[in-house]
Structures are given as structure tokens and as C-alpha cells.
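Bench log, entry 3. Co-assembly request; chain sequences pasted below exactly as received.
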Amino acid sequence: MSQVETTRVTKSFGKTKALDDVSLTFDDGGFFALLGPSGSGKTTLLRTIAGFHFPDSGSIRVGERNVEKVPVEKRDIGMMFQNYALFPNLSVADNIGFGLRVRKVGATEEKRRIAEALELVQLRDLGNRMPAQLSGGQRQRVALARAFVTRPKVLLLDEPLSALDKSLRIDMQVELKRIQREVGITTIFVTHDQEEALTLADRIGILRDGRLVQAGPPREVYDRPATAFAAGFLGDANWIPEALLGGLALPAALPFGPTRYATRPEALTISATRPEGNALPARLVSRVFAGAMATLLLDVAGEPWKLIARDRDIPAVAEGQEVWLGWAAGDTLAVAA
Amino acid sequence: MTLLALAGRVWLGLVLLFLYAPILMMAAMSFNASPFYQLPFEFSTKWYADMAGNDQIIDAALRSVLIAFVVTAIATAVGTAASIALFRYDFPGKRVLQVLLFPPIAIPWLITGTAMLVFFFSIGIGRGTPAVIIGHVALALPYVIVTVTARLSAFDVTLEEAARSMGAGQWTVLRRVTLPFIAPGIVAGGLFAFAVSFDQFVVSYFLSKPGDTTLPVLIYTAIRKGFTPEINAISTIIITVSMAVMFLAARKSNFGGDR
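Structure output for the full assembly:
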């Protein structure tokens, strides 16, 4: 268990800057999500922390040790790969025991720790199976057990749940969080799924074009996004058209650069007449019913807006009808454009 | 069954007949007591007994087997290393090198053999068993590279990355992850190499010393002097061994496909 820190890490592949001056601290025992669209550099950052790439400049610290020039096999990490990368010719137990054997922990200790790991991922009786005989979810657990069984300083997960179908994914989110808490290893995981990041992580970092956009606890990043990109990538943002800003109670503009204002879909209320406080007229485009919740797609002076609320709380409104959208002044986001 | 399908089956039957009838005939005659292929067939193992008593044949057979084993060992090791290098690294001239590895399959053996003979004489190796081994290795190498490369193309490099992430160094990764995965390809390539060497006539004929020859060369020389059914006997043994080896190779490699 160790704190991990990257300081001004830069990495280029040919002419593309995959990582550009990334400084991040990953708390000891924390669960950190690297979030970003494809090509944002999140996987490169994970692989650079792992040691598959060496940074062009900048430093990486794991615990007390600077590791930016140390190859993977000497970094004492545990990594789980997107496709799990289980050894097809080894049984579940031998897959999990691979790193222990490399470390020469001895046969008894090896056996004990494999059993312990199998227990933790709830695959107690499957040690003798071959990977080909496992379901997707079981393989995922084996890959996870294999990554943490050596008690590495840091656990790196590359899109850990993306290969699972949706219902299994939600179960595994809960499982992953429980296991991470029990083993208590500093964990960094890469995902492009914002919900996964919000559910699992205690801190998230949003990357874009190789640069860190914002880092912080999920709620903080969601409630106070720093940039328009962060606001739109983590959750949905309804942008307030500039022409309509007059007459609204707005937070102070940012000290540098142009400021844009937005609301979250769940902060809005809908009414037939103009409500008190911040409000804008809108036209209903369509209503998407999803059981408990419903989403309204609206048009605010040409800007597409969304409203999300419990279906029973939304009055019946015909498509094309003019309505008013209101929100509390404190719910207005002010972000860098 | 349509007429076309029927015609197809007949065609297949004819192809198999023309392929195997002479061989079966020879095998049958190796058990026929008459030295002149006379019928009625009279079962006898006389020719096998004669063959076993013929020191020349036994010597040549043992030499062939020994050479084939040495060639298999060298060609498999070198070919596997080459395949891994070609798979793992990108270097200038890689495509050219890959193409250059194939002529031993494409160039007629007669030409390769002549060229080797001239070359080995000019550099002082001359004729003899070492020359035969070098020649066979050169011929067998492409077969090993083709089979091992076919297997490697199905290899997932993240397996190596996973092993490294668990602390395994280069050699451990190679020994515990890469080699076990491509082992079927290596075995198949080795069997091909063995067969190429053991069945090799042309190159052996050019490169071996008279009186110090391999079995196929001895058979050829014996036939020129006058045919004896002992040749049927030894040929039957060779064919049985070769077919068994090729059958194993085909099963192991599945000709590059996955099982």
C-alpha cells in the first residue's frame, strides 16, 4: 500500500502527445478513476504508471520510490487487463499463483494465498478449472484475484468491467468496490463510462487530449465542474444561451477567460407559468419514459436541454407546447468555456 | 446425390487411387516371395530379413535418422527463435527478410543442391555429413518458421504483458508463457523438419560422400544397379514412418488453424 504520484509526466508517440504535463496524486488505499473519451491518454497514463511506457519527462513515485525508469516487472504492481489476459494453458489456481511463484514465496504460502484470493473473489471451488471453462464474470474475478494476490503496492485496472454485459456489470461494480475495500490496495482504474467512475471511485480525474482537466471527489467534480468539457462529459449539461443570460441570478464569472453557464437536468422544474427565481421559456421536443424516471428533451432558444425527474412528478405536456423551466440560483454552474 | 456430387466423389476416388495404388503395390510386393513381382502372391518376410542383414542399408538408415534428428534440433531452435523475432520486433528490412526465407520452398531442390555443392567446395566444407546437415537445415528452416509463425499469429501479447506485470522477467515470460503457447507449432515444425531431412534425396545426393550416404541416396543407387525387393522392404518402412510423422505434424498444427 502506497501513495502514487505523477509529476509533470509527458509522453509522446511520434508526433502525438499522449500525455501532456500530467500531475496527479493517488491516495494511499484510495480508489481512483481515470475518466476520458478514447484518445484522451487515460490508458497511456495507466500503462506509464505500470511501467510499459517510460515517460519522456516528469517523474512517477510509488510509495517512497521513484519508478519512472524502472521496468514493469520490477515495479511491484498488479494489473488487470481489459481482455483479462488469463493464461489459457494454466488452471485458475495456477493463473492466480503465477506472480507468487515468480516471487518464490514457497509452496505452502502460495497455496494459502491462492485459497485466500479465491475466497475473496468468491470462486472457492473453481481453482482447478481452466480459463476456457469459465463465464465472463468468473474470468473477470480470476483476473482481479491474480492482480492483487501478490499484494502489490498499486492495483491498476484497465477498463475492468467493459467486457461484461450490463446486468453483470452492475453486480461486479459492487463486488469490485467490496474487494478493493477489503484488500485496501491503492487502486487506479481506467474507464470511459462516467457512471462506473462515479459509482466506484472515491476520486476521479478527467483527461482530455493527454491533459488533466480536473481531479477530485466525484461529487465535487460533478457539482463544480471546472470546464465546459468536464461539465458535459461527467453528466449532462444544459447550456444557457448567452442572449438569455440577462435577468438570471448568476454566480460570479471566472477570473480568467470567458465563462459559460449551465444547469444539470435533474436541477430543473417544469411549469406552465413563469416560476419565481431563475427561469427560461422552452418548447417540449419529446418525452422519454423509462419506468421510474423520465427524460424531457427540450429546446431553449435553439439550445438542446434535458430535464430528468421522476415520471410522476412531471405534468402532462404536449409535444411542441411552450413551458417554463425553473431552477435554484445555487444550481447554476459556471465553467471555463 | 446430384450428378455433380457423384462426379466429385469419383474424381476424389481416382486421385486417391493414383496417389496410393503404387505405394500399396510396393508395400504388398515387399511381402511377396517372388523377386520378379510374380503372382500368385505368396507371403514372405524374406526381403525384410535380407534387408536387416545388409550392413549398407542399415548404416545408411541409421545415418539418415541421426542426420534427421540433428537437423530437427537445429532447425527447430533457430526457426523458433527467428519466428519470435519476426513476430515481436519491427526492424528495417523485415518484409524483405520474410520473403527471403521462402526460396528454399520455392526453388527446385536440384538447383539448391547444385548451388550448395559449389558453394561448400569453394569455402572448403566439401561433401560429407556436415555438409548434408547444413543443407538440410537450410531446407527445413522455412517449414519451421511457417508453422511456428502460424501459431504465434494467434498469440495474445497482453499475456506477456500480464506476466511482466506479475514480476516475471524476459526469460520467465518466454519459458512460462510464450513457449508453452507456441509449443504445438514448434512440435509440428520439428516434425516437418524431420520429414524434410529424412525424405531428402536431391540435396543429400549432391552433398553426401559416396559410400557414406543417406538412405534415399542408397536406394537410388541400388535401383540403378539392379532392383531387389529389399528396396521395397526398406521403402515400405520409410513410408510408414514418414506418413506417421506427417500425420502427427498435421494433427498438431492443424495446418495453421485453431483446434
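The longest strand of chain A covers residues 278-290. Chain A touches chain B through 25 residues (CB under 8 Å).
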